[in-house]
Predict the 3D structure of the following.
Amino acid sequence: MRQRIISNQSISQKHVQKLTIHQIQALKILEKPILELELAIKQEIIENPVLEIREELQESTEDVDRLELKEDKNSDNKLLEEIRQLSEILDYWDEIRKTERSYESKNQAYSMNYEEYERKDPLVNGWEIFYKQFYNLPLNKEERMFGEAIIGNIDEYGYLNMDLDTLDESGSISTQRRKAIHSMILGLSPKGIGARNLKECLMAQLDNELKNDKVIVSIIENNLELLIHNDIKKISRKYHISYEDAMKIKNIISHLDPKPGVRIVQQHQQYIIPDIIVRKIDNEFDIILNEARIPRLVINQNYIKMLSSAKLKMEELDYIKNKVSSAQSFIKSIFMRRNTLYEITKEIINHQPKFFIEEKLHLLPMTYEDISSSINKGISTISRAIKGKYIDTPLGMYKIKWFFSNKIEKCISTQFIKEQIRNLIENEDKANPYKDENIMNLLADKGLKISIRTVAKYRNQMKILNYRYRKEG
């Protein structure tokens, strides 16, 4: 691969006893898709006067490592040395960008038009509102990190797909407290976001009075299939209630939302902007980090010079030190995000040769653990890095998460089969929808041989109803 990125020491994700403010910031930056990162940078520039945008890449610049800084009793040598090291990273970053720009202008085979991905800034969306509710919860720093990890692993339907134990990076939160924090998140609006299964999702949406109704709770926990099949008479007999009461219960439960995440998905996006673009040229892959919207950040030189001034009061010096340190950390966090995304993408290409090299819509089994062991970063870091991000490939635009799956028979991706099932159902004749047997046969025609039971299992996991309840007209 043509592009080289310098290595960056990863934050250990296991057995971390105490996360620093800078580490927390780095994880938050890592998690942000390109548009959210752009907004975060704009906000940081407003809040930190030390940060500034360099509009043009310059051949020769007066960077920090070229400054002759006077040392006196007020200077902080450690901070200045870290800033010098940071300037080397920024210089390297400049070279990468120059190379990319030169490469794009010289190769007609690759003509990336970033305007293709442009759109208006999104309105305040449901996830932002959801996060505001979360940040109002009475949590300490470790608990908030744990809660952010929960939200960061919620899928588009609002379900949590990881164990609570795995998400506790600090290792300092008790099992009981983890459950309590998870319960708090389930209670945010819309209720049910973060549930681990359908039953937990529906239970979270009941008010306190309904949670004390033993019949309603029992139906949700044990007999949902009776409601799915609209078997009101059997519900009436089983729970010794009148048909009218059974209908009332059915109406209550049927008005609960089995996919609360859909309600807070951003509705105003007209285009998807990828964080990563992969292009194949002369049998080699170029990994391009989509940074057209990301400004080049530097530290204002005037503040650096102030650090060596003997004229400043101690409180003024402390203020500048803190702001410079914060700016330094912010820039490094952006660079760490860049590094991590690049490393993950490189490993995805290595693990999916049929997709990228042979350009066939076929995925091999690949898990977070596979990538984690290859790039020496924790599973939680991988999960955060790919959350909500898209990759533009020669075969089209995909969620990065789409490339990951569990191991199944014949080395076929579970997610790929699910996508095939979903596509068949979405394009079926609504007046004569496919039975599971029909879907099995259609998949077999494509070379995907699975049982009717597996079709039903995947369909249920995707919360898609039986053909009887998909029929229209």
Notes: The chain has a mean pLDDT of 77. The CA atoms of residues 153 and 337 lie 18 Å apart. The longest helix spans residues 314-351. The chain has 23 helices and six strands.
